[in-house]
Write a structure and sequence with these properties.
With about 1050 residues, the chain is an alpha/beta fold. It has 4 domains: about 400 residues, TIM Barrel, CATH 3.20.20; about 200 residues, Rossmann fold, CATH 3.40.50.1700; about 150 residues, Immunoglobulin-like (Sandwich), CATH 2.60.40; about 90 residues, no CATH class. It contains 33 helices and 29 strands. The strands form 6 sheets. Strands 1-2-3-4-5-7-9-10 form an 8-stranded parallel barrel. The radius of gyration is 35 Å and the shape is globular.
C-alpha cells in the first residue's frame, strides 16, 4: 500500500500542467503529503459510514474456495456478495486454475480475478467477456447484470470495495509457486542470495510484480524474510531454499530490493506480505506441522532474525515509508521465549499472543503499524489444528479467529480448514466464523472497536492501491491551493472533519470504480514468449542462475584445486536424478520434479553432435534415484518398467470435480517405489545392468534435491551410494549438483566427490548453467548465503569478514583534501598542523567471497606517535556500504603511524603523517592523485574510481591497495641465491672462452650491477618495482637480480664485438 502512495508523490513540477487555482510551486511539499494522508483518512471514514456490520466484518477475512465457477449458483458468490468477504487466495490446490500442458494459465487467472472483482461489486461477469479490451471496460462495467437481479434474492447492495486476490509465488517449488505455466520460471530465494546482488533481487521482484498485476493478483504472500543461521541436513532443512541466507544484513538487502521490485513492477497495485515475523529460520521442526518454541534471547533476536523485518518497516528521514517497505507482515506461528517468556502454562503461538502487539510497539514498529497490516497465516494448518483442538476433538475456528483479531491481526486467513480436504466442510466453517463475528460485533463494543481499527487499515490499503497514482496528489494540491473554505493558500493540511465539508470530497460517487480493478486484454501480451517483457525476464533468470552457481568442492580458490576437465568423446556419463512425483491438487496428474532426461537433453543440445560435437547420445545413460535405491536394497526395481510422462508433456486433469476436494499439501504417490517417474525402456532393467553401467561409467552425476526419506524414500540415494559403494568410485569423476539447499551432505561424503556444485534451483535455466560449468564454459562465481559444512564455506560469518589476503585500502583527508599519506619508506609523509583533525577512511572492504563486507563490520585503528610510542585511544568504526570512517584529532607535533585492521585484514604497512607545530609555519596539505582501480570487485553495484572525498567514497574500488615494502629476509635470501646460481652459470659458459682476467672482470661487474639493482628495487626507486612485487611476491627479487647481472655481461660483450 505504501507503493501506491509513493507513486503519487511525484515531483511538483510534473503536475504543473494540472488544473489548480494557483501554481503548484506555491504549495508546500510537506503540506501536500499531510493533505494526501488526511484525504485518505477521510475517504476511509466515508466508506466506513456507508458500511453495515456484514460489510465491516467481511472485509477482515481472506479465504480459499474450490473451483473456478463464479456464477450466481456457485459457492463463492454468496461468500463474496452475502458474507462480504474481503479477499481470496487462489491456487491450483483448490482447483481455481491449473498449470497443465497447453493451458493458458495467465488467461485463466485473469478471467477468474475479473469475475471475482465483479462479484465484490454485486455484478456478474460472463466468462466469455471476462477479459475486455481497454477501450471497452467502461461500457462493459455499465452493462453488467446485478447479481441480486439474476439470483432474484433481495439484499443490500454492496459497498464498492475491491477484493484482495492473493497467491504464493516464491519460486521453483510446486508447494509455494502457484502460477507456473507461461509465467516466468522464478529462482528460489536462496539462489538470489547466492548472487549477493540486490539488483538482481529487485529485477526478479519486478518480474513477479508485473506478472501478478497483469493477471489481477494484488496480494503476494511473500517474500520470506526468515534467516537461516543453523542449516539442518534433515527434512526441516528443505525450508532453507526459501530464504535469502543466514546473515541479517544481506537478508535485509535482498528482501528490501525484492519488495521494491514487486511494487515497481506491479505499478503500486501488488501488496507484499513479509513472512514470518519476527523470523523462524532456525526452527527444529516443520512450522506447518507443529507449534515449536524458538529459544533465542532478545538481544540475539534483535541482532539477527528481527533485522530484516526492521529494514522493510523503517521510515525514511522525512517520516515517509520507502517504496521498499512491506505492506503487511505475517506473524510466525512459533512461540518465542524471548518475547512471551516461559512457564508451566501452554503458551499460544506469537501470532495469537497478546505479546505480539506489545512487541511491535516496543521494537520500533509503531510508525509502520499505523498503516501496515498484519495477516495471520492459514488457520487450518496442521500445527494450528493440533495446538488448538480441544479434548473433545473440536477445532474452534471461530474462537481462534476472534483471538487473532484481538491480539492485533487485521487480515484473518481462513484457509485449509477441513481436516479431510472436503470443501463443503470448509465453506460451513467459514460461514459460521463470519456469523460469529457479526454477532459479537453487535454485542461487544470492545470487539467492535477492534474490528473497526483493522477495517480502517484494510480500507486505506485498498484505497491507496486502486486510486490513480496522480489523482490523490492532484486533489490534495487543489485543496491547499485555494479550493477550500478559506479560499487562501494553505500551509497546513485540513483535518478529516474539515475535508468532509468540501463538496468535492463529500461526493457520493464510488470511491473505487470497478473498472480500475479489472485486467484488460492488452495486459495479457506480456505472457507471449516473444514479448520484450518475457524475453527480458528470461534473460534475468539466466543471469541469476549464472551468478548463483557455486563450486562448493573442491576449493577452486586454492592454486592446486580445480574442477574436473570437461567430458570428452568416448567417456561414459551416467546420470542419476531425484525425479520425485508431486501433485498440485487432489485430482491433478502427478508432475515430475526433475525428469531423468533433463540434464542429458541439455548436454546434447549444448555439446552434442549438432553443437560442439563433444558428446554423442550413446555416451549418456540416465537413471532415477528410485532405481539406484532398489539396487542398493538388493532387489529389482518394480517401477523401472513403468513409464510416466513428465508434467511438461502431460495434460493436467480437470481440477473442478463435481464434489470439489482440497489437498492440504501437494501430494506424492504412496510408497517408495512409485515416487519417481522414469523414462525407462520397456524391458525390465536388472540390477546387473545398472551395476555394469556404474562400473563402465567415467562420469557419475547426481541431480540431488533435499533429503526427506519419510516423504521421498529415495531422496537419500546419494548418501547411501557414497557410504555403501564409495570404494568403487576410484578413477571416476563423481559430481553432485545440489538443486535445492546445499547442506545435505556431510564432510566425509563431500570428500568422496570430484565436484560438488551448488545450483539452488531445479528449473531449466539453472540446470543449463550447471552443465556449462561442468563443461568449463565459464567458472562458477557464486557463494552460498548460508554455512555449508565440509566445504570452505563452513562458517558464513567468517566468509563475510574482511579478506586477510587483501590489504585494506586506506585514505586520509584533511577537510575535503585527500592527503598523500605514504607508507613508511615509500615517499614523504603528509604534513598537517597540530591541533587539527584528520579523517581516516578505510574501504571499500572486500570479504572472503569478494563482495562488500556487511554494514556494521568493525574496523579498528592504531594511531601511534613514533619515538614516544604514544598510542591514541581511537574508537573502532563500523562500516557502511563497505567503508569505515573515523575523525582523529592530532593535538601534539610528531610523526604519526596509522594502521587500520578488521579481523585478520590490515592496512599494513603504516601510513605516516607528520604533525607540525603551527608556530613553526603553516602546514600545507598535499593533495594526492586520484586512485585508479586495477581490478574489479564483485559487488551488488558497480564500483568505479575512488573519490577524493569521503562523501563519494562508495564509488572506490576495493582492490586498490598499498603494496607492502618489497624487501625482507626472504627477498634477500632469494636475491643471494639467484646471484650464486647466475655466477655459476656465467662461469660455466665463459671459463673456456675468456681469459681469466676478463672473466673475473665480467663477473665482478655482474655482481655489482645485480646487487645494485636489488638495492634500488628495495628502496622503491626501481620503476614498476611495486607492480612487479605485487605480481611475483618474493620471486620479484630473483628477476631483478638476474636481469641486473645479465645486463652488464651483454653490454661488455657488445663492446668487445665493436672493438
Amino acid at each position: 500500500m505504501v507503493a501506491a502512495l509513493l507513486f503519487a508523490l511525484q515531483p511538483l513540477a510534473a503536475l504543473a500542467q494540472t488544473e489548480s487555482p494557483l501554481a503548484v510551486t506555491a504549495v508546500d511539499e510537506g503540506a501536500v503529503r499531510a493533505q494526501m494522508a488526511a484525504l485518505l483518512d477521510t475517504r476511509v471514514a466515508q466508506l466506513m459510514a456507508d458500511m453495515d456490520v456484514a460489510d465491516k466484518v467481511g472485509q477482515l477475512f481472506v479465504i480459499n474456495f474450490a473451483g473456478a465457477d463464479t456464477g450466481f449458483e456457485s459457492d463463492i458468490a454468496p461468500l463474496i456478495h452475502g458474507y462480504r468477504i474481503g479477499g481470496v487466495v487462489i491456487s491450483p490446490r483448490y482447483g481455481n486454475f491449473d498449470n497443465g500442458n497447453r493451458t493458458d494459465t495467465p488467461g485463466l487467472v485473469a478471467g477468474l480475478t475479473n469475475r471475482l472483482q465483479a462479484l465484490a461489486y454485486g455484478k456478474l461477469l460472463d466468462p466469455d467477456e471476462a477479459i475486455p479490451p481497454a477501450d471497452e471496460v467502461d461500457s462493459l462495467v455499465d452493462n453488467l447484470p446485478d447479481l441480486a437481479d439474476v439470483s432474484q434474492e433481495a439484499g443490500r447492495a454492496p459497498v464498492d470495495i475491491p477484493l484482495f486476490v492473493g497467491v504464493e509465488q516464491i519460486g521453483d517449488s510446486i508447494d509455494n509457486t502457484y502460477l507456473r505455466r507461461k509465467f516466468t520460471t522464478l529462482p528460489t530465494q536462496m539462489a538470489l542470495g547466492a548472487t549477493w546482488n540486490p539488483d538482481l533481487a529487485y529485477q526478479v521482484g519486478a518480474i513477479v510484480g508485473r506478472e501478478l498485476h497483469n493477471v489481477g493478483v494484488n496480494l503476494l504472500l511473500g517474500p520470506n524474510l526468515d534467516m537461516l543461521t543453523l542449516p539442518r541436513p534433515d527434512s526441516v532443512g528443505k525450508l532453507g531454499v526459501d530464504m535469502y541466507g543466514g546473515n541479517p544484513y544481506w537478508v535485509s538487502e535482498m528482501g528490501e530490493a525484492y519488495i521494491n521490485g514487486v511494487h515497481v513492477g506491479g505499478r503500486g497495485q501488488v501488496l507484499t506480505v513479509a513472512r514470518h515475523f519476527p523470523g523462524q529460520g532456525d526452527v527444529d521442526r516443520l512450522p506447518s506441522d507443529e507449534v515449536a518454541t524458538i529459544q533465542t534471547n532478545l538481544d540475539e533476536l534483535r541482532a539477527t532474525a528481527l533485522a530484516p523485518f526492521q529494514r522493510v518497516t523503517t521510515p525514511t528521514g522525512d517520516g515517509q515509508m520507502p517504496i521498499g517497505a512491506t505492506d503487511a507482515l505475517m506473524p510466525s506461528n512459533m512461540r518465542y521465549s524471548a518475547i512471551q517468556g516461559t512457564g508451566p502454562q501452554r503458551l499460544p503461538p506469537l501470532s495469537l499472543s497478546p505479546d505480539l502487539n506489545t512487541f511491535l510497539q516496543q521494537e520500533g514498529f509503531a510508525d509502520w503499524r499505523s498503516d501496515g497490516l498484519l495477516m495471520i497465516n492459514a488457520l487450518g494448518l496442521p500445527a494450528m489444528r493440533r495446538h488448538f483442538t480441544t479434548e473433545s476433538g473440536e477445532f474452534p475456528v471461530h474462537v481462534v479467529a476472534s483471538n487473532a483479531l484481538l491480539v492485533g491481526n487485521d487480515l484473518i486467513y481462513l484457509g485449509r480448514l477441513s481436516d479431510d480436504g472436503v470443501w463443503d466442510d470448509e465453506r460451513v466453517i467459514i460461514e459460521k466464523t463470519i456469523t460469529f463475528f457479526q454477532e459479537r460485533y453487535a454485542a461487544d463494543p470492545d470487539f467492535a472497536d477492534a474490528v473497526d481499527q483493522a477495517l480502517a487499515r484494510i480500507l486505506r490499503a485498498k484505497l491507496e492501491m486502486f486510486t490513480p497514482p496522480d489523482q490523490l496528489r492532484r486533489d490534495a494540491i487543489e485543496i491547499l491551493a485555494g479550493n477550500n473554505p478559506t479560499g487562501a493558500v494553505l500551509t497546513t493540511a485540513l483535518s478529516v472533519d474539515e475535508l468532509l465539508t468540501l463538496p468535492q470530497v463529500a461526493a457520493t460517487a464510488p470511491l473505487i470504480d470497478l473498472g480500475a480493478a479489472l485486467v484488460t486484454a492488452e495486459q495479457q501480451a506480456i505472457f507471449d514468449p516473444a514479448s520484450p517483457e518475457a524475453v527480458n525476464a528470461a534473460a534475468t533468470v539466466r543471469q541469476v542462475a549464472r551468478a548463483a552457481i557455486t563450486a562448493l568442492h573442491p576449493d577452486i580458490s586454492a592454486p592446486a584445486e580445480t574442477l574436473p576437465t570437461a567430458p570428452v568423446e568416448g567417456e561414459k556419463i551416467l546420470i542419476f536424478t531425484d525425479s520425485r512425483l508431486q501433485r498440485e491438487c487432489s485430482t491433478c496428474i502427478a508432475q515430475v520434479a526433475v525428469s531423468p532426461d533433463d540434464l542429458s537433453d541439455i548436454i546434447l543440445r549444448l555439446y552434442g553432435p549438432e553443437a560442439t560435437g563433444q558428446i554423442t547420445p550413446d555416451q549418456i545413460a540416465t537413471r532415477s534415484f528410485s532405481e539406484l535405491t532398489e539396487l542398493l536394497d538388493g532387489q529389482p526395481d518394480p517401477a523401472a518398467t513403468a513409464t510416466e510422462t513428465p508434467a511438461d508433456s502431460t495434460p493436467a486433469a480437470t481440477t473442478t470435480p463435481t464434489s470439489p476436494g482440497v489437498t492440504p499439501e501437494p501430494e506424492t504417490l504412496p510408497g517408495g517405489a512409485a515416487e519417481d517417474t522414469v523414462n525407462a525402456p520397456t524391458e525390465e532393467i536388472s540390477g546387473s545392468i545398472l551395476d555394469q553401467e556404474i562400473a563402465e561409467a567415467d562420469w557419475i552425476i547426481f541431480n540431488m534435491l533435499d533429503v526427506d526419506p519419510v516423504r521421498y524414500p529415495s531422496s537419500d540415494a546419494v548418501k547411501r551410494f557414497l557410504r555403501e559403494r564409495g570404494a568403487e568410485l576410484e578413477g571416476k569423476q563423481v559430481i553432485v549438483l545440489a538443486l535445492s539447499a546445499p547442506y545435505f551432505l556431510d564432510a566425509t561424503e563431500i570428500s568422496n566427490l570430484s565436484a560438488y556444485l551448488g545450483v539452488y534451483a531445479k528449473s531449466q535455466p539453472f540446470l543449463e548453467n550447471a552443465v556449462r560449468v561442468l563443461f568449463r564454459s565459464y567458472p562458477p562465481t557464486g557463494a552460498p548465503p548460508v554455512s555449508v559444512a565440509g566445504t570452505r564455506f563452513a562458517d558464513l560469518s567468517e566468509r563475510l569478514q574482511a579478506d586477510p589476503l587483501r590489504t585494506l585500502p586506506i585514505d586520509i583527508f584533511a577537510g575535503e583534501t585527500r592527503l598523500s599519506a605514504n607508507a613508511a619508506g615509500s615517499g614523504p609523509p603528509a604534513v598537517v598542523d597540530a591541533g587539527s583533525s584528520i579523517r581516516v577512511q578505510v574501504g571499500p572492504i572486500a570479504d572472503r567471497n569478494n563482495h562488500m563486507v556487511p554494514d556494521g563490520t568493525i574496523v579498528e585503528f592504531q594511531v601511534i606517535y613514533e619515538g614516544a610510542e604514544l598510542a591514541l585511544n581511537v574508537q573502532p568504526a563500523e562500516t557502511r556500504s563497505g567503508f569505515a570512517v573515523r575523525e582523529i584529532p592530532l593535538a601534539r607535533p610528531g610523526s604519526v603511524r596509522i594502521v587500520a585492521t578488521s579481523g585478520e585484514a590490515t592496512s599494513q604497512p603504516p601510513r605516516l603523517v607528520t604533525v607540525v607545530d603551527g608556530a613553526d609555519g603553516e602546514a600545507t596539505p598535499t593533495a594526492a592523485a586520484p586512485i585508479t582501480p586495477t581490478v574489479a570487485l564483485t559487488t551488488a553495484t558497480a564500483l568505479t574510481t575512488a573519490s577524493t572525498s569521503p562523501d563519494a567514497a562508495a564509488s572506490a574500488d576495493p582492490n586498490v591497495r598499498e603494496t607492502p615494502r618489497p624487501v625482507n629476509p626472504a627477498t634477500l635470501f632469494v636475491a643471494i641465491f639467484t646471484l650464486l646460481i647466475t655466477l655459476s652459470m656465467l662461469l660455466i659458459v665463459q671459463v673456456r672462452i675468456l681469459p681469466r682476467t676478463m672473466l673475473v672482470h665480467n663477473l665482478l661487474w655482474a655482481v655489482i650491477i645485480g646487487l645494485g639493482a636489488y638495492i634500488i628495487f628495495g628502496v622503491g626507486l626501481l620503476p614498476g618495482g611495486s607492480w612487479l612485487y605485487d605480481q611475483l611476491d618474493v620471486w620479484s627479487a630473483a628477476l631483478v637480480t638476474f636481469l641486473g647481472m645479465i645486463a652488464p655481461i651483454l653490454w661488455l660483450q657488445l663492446r668487445a664485438l665493436r672493438d
